Amino acid sequence: MSDKRITVRRDGEERVIEAPVGAGFLSLLKMHGFPLVCCNGKGTCGRCRILFEGQRAPLPVAADRIAFSAEELRQGYRLACMHRVQGDCTMRVEFVESRAVEAVTTHGGGIRDGSAGAAKGRSAANGGMPGRSAEYLIAVDLGTTTVAMQAVAADSLRELKRGGRLRILGEYSCMNPQRRWGSDVISRLQAAERGEAGELAEAVRDVLEEGVEQLCGELGGRPESIWLAGNTSMEHLLMELDTRTLGRYPFTPVCLQEMCLPGRQGKDGVSGQEIRLLPGISAFVGADITAGLLACGFAECEDGECRLFIDLGTNGEMAIGRGDRLICTAAAAGPAFEGGAGVNVPGTDMIALLAEMLEGGVIDETGLLKEPFFDTGWQKGELRITQQDIRGLQMAKAAVCAGVELLMEAMGTDASRIDKVFLAGGFGYFLDVEKAARIGLFPPQLAGRVTAVGNTSLLGACLYGGEESLREKAEAMCRRAEVLNLAELPGFEQKYLERLNF
């Protein structure tokens, strides 16, 4: 059968692509120079928007109906990842580029008094700060979306124990280059299974090497050591470990212990510096959470306080600790906290807007948009929030809130007896806590006890690398941690359904 002619229009330009029947539109477009960071065929992110022109569009599938309004479907909008070539056609590409995310490197909020005012951006050195050639270590936060690095003066780690503050000598941050294999972890695990594990690892090693070299050049010397914290999948991909069991039940990691990534040999024959990877707790509670818990004092919880830790991103990782007992879990959040694909706004803004819509009567407690907004969505300035965006956030916040409540039940406590709540990560750093409580992201009784603590992954990696006794405590904490699998708990589904409403 002869190839079909696909006329593609974008930004006033037109080109013709020939493709066989059955070829997927998303793969075809990416292959011919239309790149996109997306969910790679799952139909969940809604970014691969195409508009069929001049003829009947293919019948919409369920993912199309979630991503588009009824009017957009009638116009011919579809998701490229959900459809395949059937005949000659003309389409307009309207891909929604993912929002550039700035890595949050600040770790404040009074955790061990260990924050310093750190500059933002791809790279920054504290030009006016003494000790440029002093001994230092580098901490790395290897996230699914961003990579952040900090150079920290070694003597300030000792000062930290006496109530001082860390001295941040330099910073480096960038987007995680693995995003070209997909914005989510599962897409990358699937790429590794297809034989691309080496390329995934090399992409990250390149930016790690670039960041280290840049910091070394700015500070005039090599670091004492480099310590990296990432989620379990990111660490497995970096180390080129077998990831097949991470992506399917029972989700078993190959290694959760501290690991060492040897330095690569340069063109001059000199090997680069090794990078030590922090240990993790489970497939879904990784070394970044180990670092966060260490930074928030969970490894030394001897005061009898009951503490709750929440780190929100693509997954919502949570932990509760009291005395020697520590219980952890994770809830799938998907892209909801990043904002809907159509509005492409940060999840923190989405939460604030939803709280405003609730107060203004634009949506009811079930999340239903009232007329005349149901079909077209609610507009504020250039932002448009659709019914689909609201539903996505509802499902994510219900999973997180249900997870928090089940953790408290497992600890034998309730919201009234939680002493401190640490909200970690970039999302938590910018979150309006009162508005988050208003929409039910966590039990409202906790709102007055929440502290936004920033990038605890970086701070925890500094602490872990800077003192051997803390390494021993962190490793003991990982060993004693209990892990709840929410999907297997009999009460999870009921709590999840109960927390869907605002």
Radius of gyration: 24 Å
Average predicted local confidence, pLDDT:
85
Main sheet: strand order: 6-9-8-7-10-12-11
> What overall geometry do the principal axes of the alpha carbons give?
globular
Helix content: 25-40%
CA distance, first residue to last residue: 54 Å
Main pleated sheet: 7 strands, mixed
Strand content: 15-25%
Q: List unreliable stretches of 5+ residues.
A: 109-133
Find the count of extended strands (DSSP E, 2+ residues): 20
Sheet/helix structural class: alpha/beta
Q: Helix count?
A: 14
Short description:
The chain is built from 14 helices and 20 strands. By secondary structure, the chain is of the alpha/beta class.
SSE topology:
Elements: E1 4-10, E2 13-19, H1 25-31, E3 49-53, H2 62-67, H3 70-75, E4 77-79, E5 89-93, E6 123-125, E7 136-142, E8 146-153, H4 154-161, E9 168-175, H5 185-219, E10 226-230, H6 232-239, E11 259-261, E12 275-277, H7 287-295, E13 306-312, E14 315-322, E15 325-332, H8 347-359, E16 378-380, E17 383-385, H9 387-411, E18 420-424, H10 425-430, H11 433-439, E19 450-454, H12 456-466, H13 468-480, E20 482-483, H14 492-498
Parallel strand pairs: 1-5, 7-10, 10-12, 13-18, 15-20, 18-19
Antiparallel strand pairs: 1-2, 3-4, 3-5, 6-9, 7-8, 8-9, 11-12, 13-14, 14-15, 16-17
Helix pairs in contact: 5-6, 7-12, 8-11, 9-14, 12-13
